[in-house]
Amino acid sequence: TSPIVLLGAMDGEIEEIRNALNSREEIIIGGWLRAYRGTLEGRPVVLAKSGVGKAMCAMSTQAIFDHIAREEIPSNAAPRKPGALIFTGLAGSLNPELHIGDTLIAADCIQHDLDATALGIKRGTVPYSSHRFLESDPDLLAAAEGYRPESGRVHRGRVLTGDQFIARRNDPQYAYLREELEGDGVEMEGAAAALCAKVNSVPFLLARTISDEADGKAEVKFREFLIRASQNSLKLLTHIFSRL
Ligand code: ADE
């Protein structure tokens, strides 16, 4: 069966998942990307740290997809595709009802900093394409249903992705993120991974644990949370895998 690709942006965001892999083997993809093959709940996976930001994330995601397409197949066989891509990690909360430690499962996500409005294109749209809000795969969303974390609540909502760490509530941008895009959480990779999955026709799910409230305390809270960042992700992934 095709492997499921598991990504997080930073070491802390994948650590517990890596420790939980059975038959773990380290591989280097394209000469630069460190990844781990193994199984989780008996399913083959490829796990990697994408790096921070949309560009690193898109590069890493595509590199893994291409690696899977080429490996271990007879030369005349159709290229293999990953069974799914699941991105987990931390996010800042934009929604007053979402607190530190809560789980945000993305119904959809969008690049909040993609702005070609000067060309008459709606903010967040990849220009001259139909890509704006990128939806998570319904089967993966259904599999995530019923997840009960050890602490905090589970929300389904909208994740906003951009190449900025958001830490100022009184910034005019904050109102745009919350009121116009109606974001529940903000982070720096999800929509890049989602776009990569969409273009490659790979089912995608994005889920984040809230580490901070995207305010003046965000930097400290984020650092504090990073140590236990991947514990909740591992539990969520185990829940999803047991229901696929
Ligand atoms: N990831 C976690 N918290 C974040 C924030 N406040 N802004 C952007 N990405 C984040």
Describe the protein.
GO terms for molecular function: adenosylhomocysteine nucleosidase activity; methylthioadenosine nucleosidase activity. One of its GO terms (biological process) is L-methionine salvage from S-adenosylmethionine. This is adenosylhomocysteine nucleosidase. Its EC number is 3.2.2.9. There is one protein chain. The protein has one domain (4-242): Nucleoside phosphorylase domain (Rossmann fold), CATH 3.40.50. The mean pLDDT is 96. The protein is globular. It has helices spanning 11-20, 54-70, 138-144, 172-180, 190-199, 218-226, 229-242, and strands at residues 4-8, 22-29, 33-40, 43-49, 84-93, 103-111, 134-135, 154-161, 185-187, 204-212. The chain has 244 residues and is of the alpha/beta class. 40% of the residues are buried. The structure holds adenine (ADE).
